[in-house]
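Quick question, first post here. What does this chain look like in 3D?
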Amino acid sequence: MSDNVYALGRILMPWLFIVSAIGKFTNVAGVAGSAAMTRFESMIGGSVPPTVVGYFVAVIEIVGGLMVLVGFKTRLGGWLLFVFTALTIFFAHNFWDMEGAARAANQTQALKNLAIMGACLMIAAVGSGRYSVDSRNSTA
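> Answer (accepted):
Ran it through. Tokens below.
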């Protein structure tokens, strides 16, 4: 039973990242013009065009999401999504620099991301589980 439940959780969690990545690929200009991108660009001195960063972010989300979804190099995918989500809190949901409604909304988003980070850590700790590409490769 626990193998089935873990597989279901491992399959459900990455859809957030996969769907988000598809949105970024289809609207990279929106990502490039976001407040999070402005914050990131100011930290790196504008050395990389925002559109390139936007595509890179989308690639991280879709690759990490697919790795976890199918159970291929699952621990690595879990860590990749963990770090990505932590950086999202810092760059996109920096509620500590905000006031009023913006602060409340972004604090909620940051807390949601902490929960997602918890799921990523569990996946990184446990690995792919019984029903995965990784488990098929280890028995072949």
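DSSP finds eight helices and no strands in the chain.
Residues 100-126 form the longest helix (27 residues).
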